[in-house]
Design goal:
- The complex is a heterodimer.
- By secondary structure, chain A is an all-alpha fold.
- Chain A has 11 helices and no strands.
- Chain A has helices at residues 2-23, 27-47, 51-79, 94-120, 130-136, 145-153, 155-173, 192-215, 223-239, 251-273, 286-310.
- Chain A is globular, with a radius of gyration of 23 Å.
- The model of chain A is unreliable at 317-322 (pLDDT under 50).
- Chain B is 77% helix and 0% strand.
- Chain B has 3 helices and no strands.
- Classes of the chains: A mainly alpha, B mainly alpha.
- Chains A and B meet through helix 8 of A and helix 3 of B.
Amino acid sequence: MILGLFDFLLALALVGLAWRILATSDLFQGVILFIVFGLLMAVAWSRLQAFDIALAEAAIGAGLTGALLLHTLAGMEQAAVPSPASNPAAPRFVAKRILTNGILGLLTLIVGATLLRCIREIKRPELGVRELVMEELSAGGVSNPVTAVLLNFRAYDTLLEMAVLLVAVVGAWSLGPLPTSDPRPTATAPGRILLGLVRLLSPIILLVACYILWAGTGQPGGAFQAGAVLSAAGVLLVVTGVLAPPTLGPLYQRALLLTGLVTFLAVSLGVMLAGRDFLEYPPASSPQLILLIESALMVSIAITLLCLFVGGPRSAPDNSRD
Amino acid sequence: MIVLLNEGLIHDAVATLCLVAGALFFFAGTVGLLRFPDVYSRLHALTKADNLGLGLIILGCALQADSWQIIGKLLLIWLLALVASTTSCHLVAQAAMRMRIEPWTRHE
């Protein structure tokens, strides 16, 4: 009963936060509320016993996206982009506003009613694929069913996901060099306390990322969460200026970006040389293959998220190559 | 002591007490965030919640833990949260000083 009350308050808080994020005209407040929203979503996923998704939501949704939005906000203030608060463009005519709100309210009611109807008809989870996965888990190579599904049973989807991530980075970086030349929002050099924190946290973050990767075979974890945590270390180093932001010019940076997809493809095609089908791991060595693929994926995902955070090549006055 | 008192009413009562005390600290920190007059005193309230409140909650969870590895991980979480909140408090205060925000005094 107490848990039911907690779940109800959580759902209420999520809806309330979403409304506040959309209704506020102060962008900074919206970003901070978005980070809190990500945190509550992670709690909601935990309540649904989906711990892998909760980890990913906390790392990517709340952590990395929050940092990205704050960084963008600081860059906007530097570039003096007018925020919506200073640009009131509310529809002047009352009738137009009533019509807009009326249509949106009607759509919301229809979607809400449909969702409620669907919730009533949700079948018990025992009737899904869960039993099938649990039966075949011993042949999967790992004991965490989520990792087994992602990296073995539905490995094709994960392969395509990695290709999509690569296309996302290439697409984001193809938009051209960024107007600001310094990734750090403030011009002041980081103080000694911040540098001490970075020096303390970087090896710890590396250790935690490798642990999440290793633990993903038996507990909630895996390559995506580990890559997100590792990218957090990269973001910390880039924002404090300890590490130069990646330019994706040198060969080693491009190699690191591609290593996930290339390793995945190599394994999935390599097993065909042994006479098997595409992506059909030999059962004896599937744990090792999965760990190998996941390690490469972790590195690639970390570099991808870091590149998406940095956003593009720096515009340098004497840069004639890019 | 943790091994000896692993079962029993006293053990659960102490753990619950720690959790409730931690929650009270967080509540006090939130009230401080909403009611204190300037950014410096709000930082003070928030870091109290982070250090002591989180520490008490971690202590309550550690008393209910099953193995030493879990207690070690909980301690690591607390230490990392301490380090992060201390540094953020320092950074925010430094930024506030740079923006020339004056500390609130009683007689304005």
